[in-house]
Amino acid sequence: LPVRQFLGIATLLIGLSIIAQTAWYSVNKEEKITIIDDEPIENLSDLLNHKMLAGKTVYGDFWGTTCGPCLWEIRNFTKSLKYKYTNKEVAFLYIGRGNKLLWQKLLKKYNMQGIHVFLEDEKYARIFRNVAANEKEPIEIPRYFISNHQKIIVNRTAFRPSDRDSLYHQIDATLAKR
After folding, report:
1. b/e map 146-174, b = 16+ CB within 10 Å
2. Digitized pLDDT (tens) for each residue of the chain, 178 residues in all
3. Residue 161: CB partners within 8 Å, gap ≥ 6?
């Protein structure tokens, strides 16, 4: 292809990509899927201080787009967890990694209502290790944590959604200390 044709095609594809992403975000905001992408996230403090999480108990979920156990938990157990805490001061924070396009598709496919951030591997590892309070902690997912309304991590290894009663006890105990 001549250079002019190549540049024209490339510009067209980039434009279509931007339009597709804009449409995706607007559709999902109506479905209660919120993406944190309006400011840089460098560490756990940046994330927990986000305005969407202010004053809430946060149940955080580290997951990946190709993690079978992560997707199994999301698909089979998070709906009842969210239902239990409807109208409570609990925010569900999903910290994702992997392939960004696949991540977007999975959010929609599983109707993953909550607050989401997608991070590149380096930032993901930094925040994971901030939660673990151990700079050498191996990245093993899924991993869950709970922070209280004051943005303090009260449980660095919270139960999975499939451990329903034990997890409910952890979240209820955190809410009771408000």
Report:
1. bbbbebebbbbebbbbeeeeebbebbeeb
2. 565 665 556 555 554 454 444 334 433 444 589 999 877 888 899 999 999 999 999 999 999 999 999 999 999 999 999 999 988 999 999 999 999 999 999 999 999 999 999 999 999 999 999 999 999 999 999 999 999 999 999 999 999 999 999 999 999 999 999 8
3. 73, 74, 77, 78, 80, 81, 167
Tokens 């607007």: give the residue: 26
| SS3 sequence of 58-124 | EEEEEEECCCHHHHHHHHHHHHHHHHHCCCCCEEEEEEEECCHHHHHHHHHHCCCCEEEEECCHHHH
C-alpha angle 132-164-53 in degrees, rounded to nearest 5? 50
Q: Provide the token pair at 4.
A: 């002019």
Q: Which tokens in the block code for residue 71?
A: 């997707």
The type of residue at 20 is A
How far does the chain reach from its first CA to its final CA, in angstroms? Answer: 65
3-state secondary structure of 44: helix
- Which of the 8 DSSP states describes residue 21? H
- Pick left, alpha or beta for residue 161 (phi over 0 → left; psi -120 to 50 → alpha; otherwise beta): alpha
Strands 114-118 and 143-147: unpaired
